[in-house]
């Protein structure tokens, strides 16, 4: 039987120039490099410059992914941007990117699932491709989380950073067997009752302001390890691939200790988890495609490898996507 499978045919990423170190944060807040690094693994993060918008970061990542895919813009049917920090309440970042890459047909929209946004976007893109509503999709995760920070709140502002990552997905015909390249499955979950663990205290229909990120970190931590491990196990069960056959895990980069606890829970060597947390911090929807791009560029992820992407974020939302690179 012939089936359509979505393959990632190009990837790219972009980080703003400005680097904010733990030492710099410690000079203005009651915190220290030692506290931040030992509790989270984060040593520095990139911060968008004055006037640098989410769309600017997204555009650069998208251009790099399109170049890597070696596809003209005319081939793109759909642009999806996973973001929780759009330039404006509307229109979407995806619509702005559509215009800025010179795409004059097709569709564009944003996906909002906070740190799980890229996994949600990947599931949407994969389903559009499998339903033959799009052949080629540009999927971006882009954030300026620095704009949502309360810079006097040491429990949150030390954790986040800005950046963007992008992939180009393209449908290809195959037999639907695990050894073929492409997205093998995606798993999405949400539990809206857990709102109070992680939210922004503003918005268009409440305060009329952007608001600041608020988080009960310890609670989020516990849910993260359990939910991420569960979604990985569910993805593996459905795929016909065993967990030991997964070459690389590309997790959402929230906290090095979450990565290590997840690896322990799954009984997987921690070295198989790609970690960019020390240099990027938590870039929300951008973190998975940023880490993916780093590992592809440095040669760790190679054609034919089995790769598990996973994330959890505000909502709470969480999910996993299994693919053969
Ligand atoms: N510097 C120094 N001390 C600090 C800092 C800081 N930056 N932040 C908190 N502390 C203090 C606290 O006030 C507390 O002090 P107290 O004992 O006197 O009350 C102490 O350190 C311990 O605080 P905890 O919150 O218990 O620290 P914990 O070990 O849980 O680490 C952290 C906090 C890093 C936030 C962790 O809980 C975590 O990573 N949680 C998960 C976050 C996450 O995964 N987010 C992902 C989703 S993000 C999204 O969707 C947008």
Give the gist of this structure.
The chain has 325 residues and is α/β, with parallel strands linked by helices.
Would you give an account of this structure?
With 325 residues, the chain is α/β, with parallel strands linked by helices. Helix content is 31%, strand content 26%. It has a 5-stranded mixed β-sheet, with helices on both faces. Helix 3 packs across helix 4 and helix 6 packs across helix 7. It is globular. The model has no long low-confidence stretch (mean pLDDT 97). The protein binds acetyl coenzyme *A. The site of acetyl coenzyme *A has 23 residues, from helix 2 and helix 6.
CATH topology of the largest domain: Peroxisomal Thiolase, Chain A, domain 1
> Which CATH first-tier class of the largest domain would you pick?
Alpha Beta
At the fourth level of CATH, the homologous superfamily of the largest domain is Thiolase/Chalcone synthase
Count of individual domains: 2
In what range is the share of β-strand residues? Answer: 25-35%
Q: Give the CA-based shape.
A: globular
The total of beta strands comes to 13
- DSSP helical segment count: 9
The helical percent reads 25-40%
Low-pLDDT residue spans: none
Rg value: 18 Å
User: Between the first and last Cα atoms, what is the distance in angstroms?
Assistant: 22 Å
Order of helices and strands: EEHHEHEHEHEEEEEHEHHHEE
* Main beta sheet strand tally, sense and closure: 5 strands, mixed
Q: Which ligands does the model contain, each kind named once?
A: acetyl coenzyme *A
What is the residue-mean pLDDT, rounded to a whole number? 97
| CATH architectural name of the largest domain | 3-Layer(aba) Sandwich
Sheet/helix structural class: alpha/beta
Query: Strand order within the widest sheet?
Result: 1-7-6-4-5
